[in-house]
Amino acid sequence: MRIIQFVIFFSIVLTVHTLINYYIFSRGLRSFEQGSNLRLAYIIGFWFLAISFFAGRILEKIYLSHLSDFFTWAGSFWLAAMLYLFLAVFIIDILRLVNYFIPFFSHFQHWIIFKKPQILTISIATVVFLVVLAGHINAIFPRLKTLDIDTGISSVESKKLRIVMASDIHLGTIISTKRVTRIVNMINEQKPDLVLFAGDIVDEDLAPVIKQNLGAILGTIKAPLGVIGSTGNHEYIGGANAAVEYLRSHKIIMLRDSAMKVAENVYVIGRDDIESMRFGGENRKPLSQIMENIPEGNFVIVLDHQPRAIEEAAAAGAGLTLSGHTHHGQLWPLNYITESMFPLSWGHKMFGTTHAYVSSGVGSWGPPVRIGNTPEIVLITLNFN
After folding, report:
1. What is the pTM of this model?
2. CATH assignment at residue 335
3. Which residues are bridge partners to 164 per DSSP?
4. Which of 177, 205, 295, 383 has the fewest CB atoms within 10 Å, counting from its CB?
5. Where among 137, 159, 185 does a domain terminate?
6. Dihedral, CA atoms, 125, 21, 374, 348, nearest 10 degrees?
7. pLDDT tens, 38-74?
């Protein structure tokens, strides 16, 4: 059943990917004369980039090498470029449709880009290149967000608890040694008491993670109360059990529908990803069942990768629920989709007496590009009366 679901899902993704690329390709092809060398270069270059991402992913499964890395990197950048090329071409087609009914192009016929279609094509490609480049620079430098929460409970041990939360690292070919080191250094600079990872720590395939020994870099995080993580959908896509065991072998406490006391009157619950049935064949426990053995009067932090069950956490009496997954769309204007899909796409919001924070993530999936949002780690200070 899982294989059939995967085949259907992959077929849909591949079909949509191919149709979008053909739409962009067909519009760009009009700019080049039949039989010209530029036309041939355009055809070869375009379809090389269009198939690179899937080729890289397949090669990673067969033989992890510099060649597979090259295809994955090229294809990942193309995914971002593809989105903005599609938007540009689509807007131009809309303008052409409007011009059919209300002619206005004639007022701009003296512009050189209308006299030479190649210049329009090259201009669009240049703008998209610059946008993707700016988005890449934005993506590789995480920012620090801060959040102060009054727990409303007393603690003899301390007046404050410093917690660093991060989600969606996506360890793998794209998020590798340099970026992971930058993330770990940034976490350690905050001198946290506790570090929490809200899912998608690894990006599906463990092979590049193991090859680059990225777990060892995570193992250098310094937090007296430990480093705790929960599973995300990408752990399940790649095989949750293997991912969890790998992370546990590198000093990360992975909570799977279980709770752990981390300080006086403070518990952390790690929920299995909501896609556990789809990808793992197992239903996750209701939050109320996980909380049964936690005495009243404690502050409960829930790690739940996808922010779909925030209301459930509020109903169960959690003090704080932490999620990721959305990337806040990662590439504008996809944030409008995540905002419509989830009760919270990015940031802090109260649900009754429960604090919810959804992180935009510290890494990225697919394109190492962020536009319209920033990567982040979150420093949360819990205050005790």
Report:
1. 0.91
2. 3.60.21
3. 195, 379
4. 295
5. 137
6. 140
7. 899 999 999 999 999 999 999 988 888 999 999 999 9
